[in-house]
User: Fold these one by one.
Assistant:
Number 1:
Amino acid sequence: MPDSLEQIAAEVAVCTRCPLHRGRTKAVPGEGSPNADIMFIGEGPGYHEDRQGRPFVGASGSFLTEMLEGIGLRREDVFIANVVKCRPPGNRDPEPHEIQACSVYLDRQIALIDPKVIVTLGRFSMAKWFPTARISRIHGQARKVNGRLIVPFFHPAAALHQPTLRQAVEEDFRKLPGYVAQALAEREPDTTEEDDSPGETFEQLSLF
Ligand code: SF4
């Protein structure tokens, strides 16, 4: 049976691959459009996310939604996930072995959605692609990794209470439509020849 986001969510709901399953109320697999051009990857569920089983529903979520609306997008247009799907106790940082254990799900989600651009929110998801980078140096800059644009952002929670970070996040969000357009243009097959002879193409097809 082919893999699906629903299948991943079902596996995550009963997963015991790492110790985080012991403290969860609900696992938070992620949500959004299966055809999203942009995938946001945060760190892990917090209190409200753990209760509701949905990512980014607290104050950080409102901020993320506001930033999306600022560039003409709704939450349903993108896909939002985390590097760990179960809440770390007391909102502590996820441990490397927990991130590693959970990466099987995130990697499958990325493969299925095949987003044009991945936005990492915070240093833990950034470290998946740029393990030695400093977020203050590279935030907002798109880099191509294995053919896909990855853009590190500050985590919305960090930006919520620090006006300078908030401004940086707003500026980084404004760059996103351009990155998506760039990624789409690079994926477009070169159709110059076909465009030059549309009649011929139509005639050939009409034979069938
Ligand atoms: S955090 Fe990920 S690997 Fe750990 S129990 Fe939850 S779903 Fe499984």
Number 2:
Amino acid sequence: MEVLTKSAEETKKFGEKFAHQITGGSVLALVGNLGSGKTTFIQGLARGLGIKRAVISPTFILMREYESKVKIQSSKFKTLYHIDLYRLEEDVEREWIGLGIQDILGKNDTIVVIEWAEKVKELLPKNTIWVKFENVGGDNRKIVTTRNWLTSN
Ligand SMILES: Nc1ncnc2c1ncn2[C@@H]1O[C@H](COP(=O)(O)OP(=O)(O)OP(=O)(O)O)[C@@H](O)[C@H]1O
Ligand SMILES: [Mg+2]
């Protein structure tokens, strides 16, 4: 499905709504150019997952984790992992394994969201939710996901 947002706040709202459609064990793979809205979406997602701490771009760190005390969709969800692979150029697979991410993917107490996820496409689970971001001029962003929920509004 596809949505068009007209401001950063609208993208956050979309992320927040998305949070109510996923459960522990979900893996979200985000794709899109610099400044297309991936981190902004994750800020809304975190808000929707009951995370109070501000989500910032993990510039020098590849991965950040955020704990939540809120029960979502009666799942065992506890920890959001935010991974940004932008700076990873060489040995992507080795780095990925080094970070120990394979062990947290798909666990029912985690939600993992990955920016520049196309770099690890082959390493992600089959049921990964892909979300594509596109800057379509000014403050407009087109967001396309592989899941056809959130069709209303
Ligand atoms: N509709 C919109 N949705 C999201 N962000 C928007 C929108 N309109 C304007 N913006 C602005 O665009 C920028 C998006 O930055 P953001 O960090 O979310 O992008 P990103 O895809 O994570 O980039 P990077 O690949 O560098 O991590 C922000 O400055 C935000 O305020
Ligand atoms: Mg970002």
